[in-house]
Amino acid sequence: MKKFLAVMTLIALIFGGAQAAPEGRMPASELMHLDRAPQGEVAQPLQTLTSENSGLNPGYSVTPIQNTRPVDPNDVLPNVTATSAIVIEASTGHVLYERNADARMFPASTTKMMTLITALESKPLDDIVTVGPGAYNAEGSTLWLDVNEKIPLGELLYGMMLISGNDGAIAIAEHVDGTVANFAEHMTRRAHELGAVNTNFTNANGLPDSNHYTTARDLAIMTKHGFSLPNFETICSAKEVSFPWIHDDTKLYRNENQMLWLYRGANGVKTGYTEAAGRCLISAAKQNGVQLIAVVLDSLYIWNDSIMLLDYGFGRVSSQTLIKSGDVVKTLPIISGRRKSMPVKTAGEIVMPVFAGDDNAYDIVYDLPNELSAPITAGETIGKIRVTLPDGREAASVDVVTTADVEQKSFFRLLLDKIKSLFA
What we know:
Blueprint: H1 2-16, E1 84-89, E2 95-99, H2 111-122, E3 128-130, H3 133-136, E4 150-152, H4 153-163, H5 166-177, H6 180-194, H7 216-226, H8 232-236, E5 240-242, E6 252-254, H9 259-262, E7 266-274, E8 278-287, E9 290-299, H10 302-315, E10 317-323, E11 328-335, E12 341-346, E13 350-355, E14 363-367, E15 372-373, E16 381-388, E17 394-402, H11 411-423
Parallel strand pairs: 11-15
Antiparallel strand pairs: 1-2, 1-9, 3-4, 5-6, 7-8, 8-9, 10-13, 11-12, 12-17, 14-16, 16-17
Helix pairs in contact: 2-5, 2-7, 4-5, 5-6
């Protein structure tokens, strides 16, 4: 049955006339109809968004649709159609916009973002996953995995995130924690540790379950943590990947997240859809050193909504360089060295967001020793500069390093210095 469905899917693609995208761009035939209202809705087009008046990439334009759903009269983005939405700045967690952000919602396949986080924190990417019967019999979107197929975990994570393979999510869950139920408990526990306390997972892929729920705010919190992990952004922002085990002649997966093509600096994260959840999207973009995360749940137009949310967010935040790379922090005395002191410098920069109309106070904390002891190697880390938020949370840090090699004094010189100090 599974092979028959694969053949039928291939036939549909052939007769659907899909076109290859030149130079990695998304062909217009693959873009959803952003200006078409759902059946029964009366929608009016608004001002067309382009790269001149929006964060859209050159060559793309989108005509947003007037929202037909009721919203609060004080809502600054009334034409965002999502039932629940939020935009945050990632380094601080600062909320730039929210609507019903704490309402309990079904996450659909945005669940897989937390599946990715849990897997990245649990196992190395080169772990070999053996596909079991549970993955083979998965419902919904699929990677067409076969029982006993052996695939590196990292490659399965790409498949799960790019084309939302439910079978991949199950295989990953069973590999990490033995069963999907155990993995879902692991996901929930980790989400609560991160502060996403209004979330409960019962599976790894987001298929409907009355006890499988989250909020827009919680998804933003989890995604914020994800961007701090190695490989998270690389996987979430990949437009295409190719692996020899892919069960298709192209051996290619193409990301379903159209924001990666549409929006300037887009770097994630995950789409989702079920009838119970509606259209869902966690999107992310980085511009001028500022990383934003936007979440829309139960949206009529996920791309339109996400573009408007990110545009609004970037319009309310800019960046400020607090620490420059290579800046001399101070000069420290050297004990037992062939020179008396040395300047120490920063090994990188710290760029922090500045929010329009809000308190932008940051504290800079210098964690440095009072002195250095020879021998010393140039480039050796001897401390940190940390930027903290008003509530004490650390938002960023940079290493402070030495600037030169310093040899230790000879035993005779150290002895002579000691004698001199006795008669001083």
